[in-house]
Amino acid sequence: MSELMIDCITSLDGYAAAEGWPGFWGLEGPEYLAWLDEPSEHEHTTLMGANTYRLMSGFAAEMPDDPGFKQIAEMPKVVFSSTLEEPLWWANTRLVNQDAVEVVREMKRDGTTPLRTLGSLSLCRSLLGAGLVDRFRVVVFPVITGSTGRERIYDGYPDVALEMVGSRTFDGRLQLLEFVPTVLSGPPGTDHGGRGA
């Protein structure tokens, strides 16, 4: 059985990106970049939606010699989309136009390779809401982008209890937090409290 991890980066106020700011909010440092290059960070199948595929494959086409995009190109990738059409040019990419929740449920049940999301906020919400996520990992960048932030990560999420199972600091400023998530049917201590299925 495969384990599914939601993997995201965020500003302190919960945005995935910010208008006018560079990638990683300009705060990626040598420790963090070295961690991204570790082999264990590339031994999984990447799940993404159409928008993330368009964005990331576009970057990969513009920067074919970038080591990070070369590594992603070598990894197996699954894109869930009803708008993209085959053939997809990015190497090792499979297009799936069926229901993502059901397909990922089957991938988890029948597979042995870990699964991780890349971006794809609506896909992450769907998979978490369906109770399919085993780990929730976030790297928090120490910025607040209240005026320029875009793509709020947690909008539309269900209530979720998080049990911390790991943490790490990179370059004295970036905080990695890893949790086991449990979707709640309502706030604890209410008639609708308690754990969801």
From TrEMBL:
<dbReference type="Pfam" id="PF01872">
    <property type="entry name" value="RibD_C"/>
</dbReference>
<feature type="domain" description="Bacterial bifunctional deaminase-reductase C-terminal">
    <location>
        <begin position="4"/>
        <end position="175"/>
    </location>
</feature>
<dbReference type="InterPro" id="IPR050765">
    <property type="entry name" value="Riboflavin_Biosynth_HTPR"/>
</dbReference>
<protein>
    <submittedName>
        <fullName>Deaminase</fullName>
    </submittedName>
</protein>
<dbReference type="GO" id="GO:0009231">
    <property type="term" value="P:riboflavin biosynthetic process"/>
</dbReference>
<dbReference type="InterPro" id="IPR002734">
    <property type="entry name" value="RibDG_C"/>
</dbReference>
<dbReference type="GO" id="GO:0008703">
    <property type="term" value="F:5-amino-6-(5-phosphoribosylamino)uracil reductase activity"/>
</dbReference>
<dbReference type="InterPro" id="IPR024072">
    <property type="entry name" value="DHFR-like_dom_sf"/>
</dbReference>
